[in-house]
Write a structure and sequence with these properties.
The protein is an alpha/beta fold. Helices cover 27% and strands 23% of the residues. A hairpin with a 2-residue loop joins strand 15 and strand 16. The C terminus is likely disordered. The structure holds pyridoxal-5'-phosphate.
Length: 375
């Protein structure tokens, strides 16, 4: 967009993304995982924060291996960064093998048919193209089932046609450190690795990294923790990455009896001051935030009132001084004291959803290592 004066943005929410904090989080996770390699999961536009800015920042922090969900995302990442390893988590769909090779992308092969298709592609081109192979150990989402592994074993010689970069699996309950399913999956994964041809292995997402060394294998795959979301059931020294501010659009005095917002779900019982702010369900504050959650204004909580609208929602600012709530004042929806995790908990959603749902309409401002601000 052409250069606009600062006041052009006064009525718009602002998402501040600290790329330096993402690098710090990467380096912390890497130090926990060492000697295993630490990759970065950047699917869904780097969890909503902007692949174009986040991926180069991670690469500058030393990350060489990236996981992303779709082929289209992978092509975009390849166009940004030429010399990194990129794995496509959603796997190899029919007819796509040549495209993977064209863009130097590696599939995570999720079933036996995908393994066979990749082997056939390698044989056709007489090249040992690399790929990861995903073994299901209890998630029942993606990956070769136990039955498929059984069918693979007598034909395991075919894997010589390709390069198995990683045997991979994924934990279902890693956010609960004491859940017995973690150890069960670890045992199942280890048993499978013993039967299969030797290759590096990868099991843990962010939360899995904290389960201990035995969960690290050769490569870990954090996503959420890079972006400051805490997936653990305990505090962690993560740097906050996201700050979300939205301006007050209008303030009104409301007398009782009255109601606020669509469907009149909030009943006013005493005189109140109510502020409308520029963030709604199109900006990641879904209806689960209706009458739940709050913004911070000058260190005070301003609770959400009524149904969230598409482009706005209302706050109770009765207790906040008038000069702190003038139209144009920015209120904090996510910040260091009011994190992705606390916001998600209040609404009863996942911190992952909160982050990826933030949407495309905010003015995104990237803070970089040098404190240089770039849009
Ligand atoms: C999304 C994903 C990750 C990253 O998970 P986080 O919990 O965000 O760290 C790792 N591995 C796989 C297979 C994934 O789908």
């Amino acid at each position: 967009m052409m250069d606009m004066p600062e006041h052009f943005h006064t009525g718009q929410g602002e998402l501040r993304i600290d790329l330096n904090a993402i690098s710090n989080n990467y380096l912390w996770l890497k130090s926990l995982a060492e000697p295993a390699t630490c990759s970065a999961v950047v699917k869904a536009n780097a969890y909503g924060l902007g692949l174009d800015q986040v991926a180069p920042a991670l690469k500058n922090a030393g990350c060489q291996v990236f996981f992303i969900a779709t082929l289209a995302e992978g092509v975009r990442l390849r166009q940004l960064l030429a010399d990194i390893d990129i794995y496509i988590l959603n796997g190899l769909m029919p007819e796509q093998a040549a495209l993977f090779t064209e863009f130097n992308l590696m599939p995570v092969l999720n079933d036996l048919a995908q393994v066979r298709a990749w082997v056939a592609h390698c044989r056709l081109n007489q090249q040992q193209y690399p790929a990861a192979i995903h073994l299901d150990t209890g998630m029942n989402r993606l990956g070769l089932s136990a039955k498929e592994v059984e069918a693979l074993l007598p034909n395991v010689g075919m894997l010589e046609a390709m390069q198995v970069k990683y045997w991979m699996s994924h934990l279902a309950c890693s956010t609960e450190s004491s859940n017995p399913m973690n150890a069960e999956q670890l045992t199942r994964f280890t048993a499978l690795l013993e039967q299969l041809p030797p290759a590096p292995a990868s099991l843990s997402n962010s939360a899995g990294i904290l389960l201990g060394k035995s969960y690290h294998f050769d490569l870990v795959r954090p996503g959420l923790a890079l972006y400051g979301g805490n997936p653990w059931d305990q505090p962690a020294p993560l740097s906050p990455v996201v700050r979300l501010l939205a301006p007050i659009l209008q303030v009104r005095e409301v007398k009782s009896p009255a109601t606020i917002g669509y469907d009149a779900t909030y009943k006013v019982e005493k005189p109140m001051r109510v502020a409308a702010i520029a963030a709604g369900y199109a900006d990641g504050f879904g209806s689960f935030f209706s009458n739940r959650g709050y913004a911070m204004i000058d260190g005070e909580k301003a609770p959400f009132l009524g149904r969230v609208s598409m482009d706005s929602m209302m706050l109770d600012v009765t207790h906040i001084p008038v000069d702190k709530t003038r139209p144009g004042t920015r209120v904090e929806l996510i910040g260091p004291q009011h994190t992705i995790n606390t916001g998600a908990n209040t609404a009863g959603i996942l911190s992952y959803e909160m982050l990826t749902g933030l949407g495309a309409r905010y003015r995104k401002i990237y803070l970089e290592a040098s404190c240089h601000v770039r849009e």
